[in-house]
Specification:
Distance between the termini: 24 Å
Strand content: 25-35%
Largest sheet: 2 strands, antiparallel
Number of helices: 0
Strand order of the largest sheet: 1-2
Shape: elongated
Structural class: mainly beta
Oligomer: single chain
Number of domains: 1
Number of strands: 2
Order of helices and strands: EE
């Protein structure tokens, strides 16, 4: 939940469950303790 606007977003796909615009979602993995984010 966004603490400022109280919107709820899906971490899987960025869709908003409370009526606001969707946000971008990125794939993130842990590679031996290093965060790897795939931007597409």
């Amino acid at each position: 939940m966004c603490p400022l606007h109280h919107h709820q977003f899906s971490l899987a796909d960025g869709s908003c469950a409370t009526g606001a615009d969707d946000v971008r979602a990125y794939s993130a993995t842990d590679d031996d303790g290093e965060l790897v984010v795939t931007l597409r």
